[in-house]
Structure formats: structure tokens, C-alpha cells
Design brief:
It comes from Noviluteimonas caseinilytica. This is Glyoxalase. InterPro entries: ArsI/CadI-like, Cadmium-induced_rsp, Glyas_Bleomycin-R_OHBP_Dase, Glyas_Fos-R_dOase_dom, VOC_core. By secondary structure, the protein is an alpha+beta fold. The chain has 2 helices and 8 strands; from the N terminus they run βαββββαβββ. The protein has an 8-stranded mixed beta sheet, with helices on one face. It is globular.
Length: about 160
């Protein structure tokens, strides 16, 4: 079953956590010094906020799925919708490990479709993310290039938790 995803950049994380905790009538599922996330069932949404230095407002929208098969199906739908679809496999982003597909709608709104496989101890794995030219977590899709295949000059150091 899929879940709608919204990620907002906020200027004041504590004030925003208070606001959304009251609005959703529940504490965040994940709370870190620069990030908070609510996994809501009514409405079914993965709602995240962060204050990582980006301009306040909508960072990106997305769809979270429960399996790699569902992500493959979403990838086919993104291809049919047009635009560039860039995979980001085994990404460390937003304190989670996920396989992702990034694209933009005709207005330039970034869309992230993803399957999360587990938690991570950092917001992102560093500045050497594959497929994103070092801009892990909501990269500029227009500038992204597909990750090199294994053995073709991978962009990340061995054991960097990136690739």
C-alpha cells in the first residue's frame, strides 16, 4: 500500500514540530536535531519537515511504497508521464535507507518515489551521493545523472554507506 509523502523545509524546527503535533494530534514518529517525521494513517501520509538550510516551503512531494515491485511499477508510471526519471539506489537520506526514483513535474516540482528498507544514523550519507552529483536528499533532478554501473568508476568510496 502506498503512502503520500510531503517534505517541507522549515526555518524554526521546534515551532513547526509544536504546530504539526497539534494539527496531527500526535508526536512525530522520528525526531532528530534537524528533522521530524509523522507517519499518519488518517490521512495516510509520510509528512516530514527539516531545517537543513534550504528556503522554507515545499521541498518535494512523493509516494512511499512497501516493496521494490511497487517502486518498479511507479517507475513505469513516471516514464509514461514523461520527464527524466533518475534512480538513486540504496540512498541514505532523512535518517533512512531507501531506493528512490526522482523526477520533476512540468512546473519543476520535485517528486520522490521510494521504498525504505531501514533506518540510518545520519540525515544523509555525505556529499558523495551517487546519481546526484553530491546533492543527496532532494537533489536538482534536472542536473542528475544516472549512477555509474558497478565497476565503472563508482562515485563513492568503498564502505562510505553511499552506494
Amino acid at each position: 500500500m502506498s503512502r503520500f509523502h510531503v517534505h517541507l523545509n522549515v526555518a524554526d524546527l521546534d515551532a513547526s514540530i509544536r504546530f504539526y503535533t497539534e494539527l496531527f494530534a500526535t508526536q512525530p514518529t522520528v525526531r532528530k536535531p534537524d528533522y521530524a517525521k509523522w507517519m499518519l494513517d488518517a490521512p495516510r501520509v509520510n509528512f516530514a519537515i527539516s531545517n537543513t538550510g534550504r528556503a522554507p516551503g515545499i521541498d518535494h512531494l512523493g509516494i512511499q511504497v512497501d516493496s521494490s515491485e511497487e517502486l518498479t511499477g511507479l517507475g513505469q508510471r513516471l516514464d509514461a508521464a514523461g520527464g527524466t526519471v533518475v534512480p538513486e539506489d540504496a540512498a541514505i537520506c532523512c535518517y533512512a535507507r531507501s531506493d528512490k526514483l526522482w523526477t520533476e513535474d512540468p512546473q519543476g516540482t520535485r517528486w520522490e518515489t521510494f521504498h525504505t528498507m531501514g533506518e540510518a544514523t545520519t540525515y544523509y550519507a555525505g556529499d558523495s551521493a551517487c546519481a546526484t552529483d553530491g546533492a543527496a536528499c532532494t537533489p536538482d533532478v534536472a542536473k542528475m545523472q544516472p549512477a555509474p554501473a558497478a565497476g565503472e568508476g563508482a562515485c563513492c568510496a568503498p564502505a562510505s554507506a553511499c552506494c
